[in-house]
Amino acid sequence: MIHFTCDCCKRLIDLEHEIRYIVRMEVFAAADTSVEAVDDDRDYLEEIEDMLSRDEHIDPLDNEVYQQARFDLCTECRDRFVSNPLCRPATVELGFSNN
Length: 99
Ligand SMILES: [Zn+2]
Prior knowledge:
alpha+beta; two-stranded antiparallel sheet; 2 helices; two-stranded antiparallel ribbon
């Protein structure tokens, strides 16, 4: 049987008694055409397509334009992640109005 470890707390996930959750993360530079101030000659979409079509070794964490990652989480870490996906400090207000 395949064993999975939570990528957050490193605990072994017991698939007979709990669910393994998968987080897929994709971070990419917005191709915001309304912003004309930055590097007009750079075609981010083309760069991303190039990157995806290449077979050579790419370190996605070493790239400013496109990053992708996948994590296995246990139930506790999944709950924590969903309630605070951007890892904000607990004291920060989440923007809810009192009105
Ligand atoms: Zn965990």
